Amino acid sequence: MTELLPWAWVALGIAAVTVGLAKTAIPGGGILPVAIFATVLPARTSTAALLLLLIVGDVFALIAYRRHAHWPSLLRLAPAVLVGLLAGFAFLAVGDDAIVRRAIAIILLAMIAVTLWRRWRQRRADAAPAAHGIIAASGYGALAGFTTMVANAAGPVMSMYFLAMRTPVQVFLGTSAWFFAIVNLFKVPFLAGIGLFDGQVLLMDAALVPLVVAGAFAGLWLARRMKQQVFDRMVIGLTIVGAVYLLF
Question: Which InterPro entries does the record associate with it (predicted)?
Answer without folding.
Answer: TM_pro_TauE-like, TSUP
